Amino acid sequence: MNRTTPELPQRRGTGVTRRRLLGGTAALTTGLFVPTAAGGTALAARRPSRTRLSLPAPTGPYAIGTVSLHLVDHARQDPWWTTPHARELMISVWYPAQGAGRGHLAAWMPSGALAHYRQELTAFLEQPDGPPGTPPPPQVSLDRVDFPITHARQGAPVKRSARPYPMVLFEPGFGLGRELGTTLVEDLASHGYVVVTISSTYDAAAVEFPDGRVEPARPDNFPRPNIDMIRRRADTLFVLDQLGALASGANPDAEHRRLPSGLHRSLDLHKIGMFGHSLGGATTAQTMAVDDRIIAGVNLDGSIFPDFDLDTGPGEVEKELARVAARIGNRPFLWLASGGFGPEYFGSLVTPFWYGLKGWRRFLSIKGSTHFTYTDLTPMLHQLAAAGVIPSAAPVGIHPHQAIAAQRDYIRAFFDLWLRNRNTPAFDGPSARHPDVVFYP
């Protein structure tokens, strides 16, 4: 993986392919295949008839609910269409819920999108990775794998509160849908946040709409991350506007489906944060740079991309990233990076922005983690390996429980500090609770 652009892993002899990015498994799955003494690969012992994947339980005191909304921006032409077509998005809202038993538990991913994603993930797990001559991995079948059920009740009423809840937006990485951040999103909601997750249609591997239509990715501009970032930023700004309409009592859902009771009263439009993984982290920074409604941001192991191509004249990218930081001003920014490495390790798509920030900032990195530690694939791939669905191997990166606990704790502490004004010692320095987390200036 090219560490200066962790969003775009390179593969010798073939370059970057979108398939290696869809589902986020490009970096993680390499370590899941173990050569046998004969030079081939071997599956683990016979696995059970079915394998059910699960997500770690949220740690907060609140039950949680969720609802998905279909948003249509009639004022904007969809950039992936050459004929007139309004831009369509799917978002999910996660929130503290009233009562633990109302409504059914929501699926991790809608069934139509999941059927597509299952095929994509299977293709990744079977794809050779490594120098020429690397033995191909064995065939993998996910047909008897049940993907997770979330901990959120579908459409449950919002828990009543004396004041609205602070709100956080989440943007996934390139080629990933909003579902891949559920482990972190659910935990924030269980601690009293409303979290809005966004799938950018035709960038995400598959987006399912209420009528059952599934829109797969359209890699028309791949691999031009600046173009994707610009499109995602526009999506995010539109979502912010629609959340404002929702808070005013409107129903922005295109089908005007019934909203959870109390949802419109639950949004604090004066306390909005945002976080994102990989390209979603770049989108977080760039959205903050153009819209001061977002008062605090978190980047999960992403680079920062300018509005123009990366091959623009010498020094222009670095100057633009410094200007992005200047436009953010004094608003706080947290960076969680992989591998235990500091800003300089990630190169010119990180350092000009990072050192250009003038407000509160912290750069933390988790030793032993990978780029995709910051997604739901961490618990799921470990479970697949343990069940023998994919070849057995030593753990991939840091133990998932340690990595997930660290991410949850620091992300929540950051938003507690800046959206709730709650003092926390979490950022004073290294912690015995999270010994794998390294602090950098």
Could you characterize the architecture of this molecule?
By secondary structure, the protein is α/β, with parallel strands linked by helices. It has a single domain (52-127, 138-440), classed as Rossmann fold (3-Layer(aba) Sandwich). It is built from ten helices and 15 strands. The longest helix is centred in the middle third of the chain and has 23 residues, at 225-247. It is globular. Mean pLDDT is 86; it is low at 1-45 and 392-396.
Helical segment tally?
10
Give the distance, in angstroms, between the N- and C-terminal Cα atoms. 25 Å
Largest sheet strand order: 4-6-2-3-8-7-11-12-13-14-15
Helix fraction by DSSP (H/I, runs of at least 4):
25-40%
- Return Rg in Å: 21 Å
Q: Care to count the β-strands? A: 15
CATH homologous superfamily identity: Alpha/Beta hydrolase fold, catalytic domain
Assess the beta-strand content as a share of residues.
Answer: 15-25%
CATH class: Alpha Beta
Concise account of the structure shown:
With 441 residues, this protein is of the alpha/beta class. 26% of the residues lie in helices and 21% in strands.
Give the SSE layout.
Layout: H1 18-21, E1 51-52, E2 64-77, E3 86-96, E4 105-107, H2 111-125, E5 145-146, E6 149-154, E7 165-171, H3 182-190, E8 194-199, E9 206-208, E10 214-216, H4 225-247, E11 267-277, H5 279-290, E12 294-300, H6 316-328, E13 333-338, H7 343-346, H8 351-354, E14 361-366, H9 377-387, H10 400-419, E15 437-440
Parallel strand pairs: 1-5, 2-6, 7-8, 7-11, 11-12, 12-13, 13-14
Antiparallel strand pairs: 2-3, 3-8, 4-6, 9-10, 14-15
